């Protein structure tokens, strides 16, 4: 608890996980709104999986050669925020059908690309921040603190989606989460 840089990483990683969990909370709601059912979720999940299978290793290799750990996390978090912003920007148009799924597909692509940058880098950063001989404790703490953030944040997100606010507002609020996480990332 005294390692402020590590706790900052935990908070940023927790914000990423909260955003990633919107594949299972906010995205189904958006797909249902756009198409009247959640059947298209399977295709969007397949799209995310395909991107990870095809691009994760090349992206990780490319990032490792060009970006610092912090810059990779910043880029990933901003891509995730852009995914939420795509849906927020399209919501006032209230598109349905295939056109209505386009923002959701954009969200999935940007979220997945962001995830490919954030997840491996956050885990690679832990040894740099861990005290000597305590890597296992720090790795477990990353998961525990992040999980707590997701638990609390998902409750708030569910309430936000149910409040009856203008359609773009929940997505804009969700876009702020990864942007705020950029602000708490530790400096190298």
TrEMBL record:
Name of the protein in its database record: MFS transporter
UniProt xrefs under InterPro entries: MFS, MFS_trans_sf, MFS_Transporters
Keyword Transmembrane: yes
SUPFAM superfamilies with a match to the protein in the record: MFS general substrate transporter
Keywords linked to the UniProt accession: Cell membrane, Membrane, Transmembrane, Transmembrane helix, Transport
Membrane topology type: Multi-pass membrane protein
Source taxon at top rank: Bacteria
Source organism of this protein record: Streptomyces machairae
Transmembrane residue ranges: 43-63, 75-93, 105-126, 135-156, 168-185
């Amino acid at each position: 608890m005294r390692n402020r840089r590590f706790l900052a990483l935990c908070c940023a990683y927790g914000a990423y996980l909260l955003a990633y969990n919107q594949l299972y909370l906010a995205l189904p709601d958006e797909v249902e709104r756009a198409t009247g059912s959640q059947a298209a979720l399977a295709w969007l999940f397949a799209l995310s999986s395909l991107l990870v299978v095809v691009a994760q290793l090349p992206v990780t290799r490319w990032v490792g050669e060009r970006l610092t750990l912090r810059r990779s996390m910043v880029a990933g978090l901003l891509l995730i925020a852009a995914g939420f912003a795509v849906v927020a920007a399209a919501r006032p148009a209230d598109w349905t059908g295939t056109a209505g799924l386009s923002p959701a597909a954009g969200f999935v692509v940007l979220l997945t690309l962001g995830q490919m940058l954030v997840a491996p880098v956050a885990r690679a950063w832990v040894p740099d921040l861990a005290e000597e001989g305590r890597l296992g404790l720090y790795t477990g703490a990353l998961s525990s603190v992040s999980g707590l953030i997701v638990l609390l944040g998902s409750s708030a997100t569910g309430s936000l989606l149910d409040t009856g606010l203008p359609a773009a507002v929940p997505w804009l609020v969700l876009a702020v989460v990864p942007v705020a996480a950029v602000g708490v990332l530790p400096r190298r």
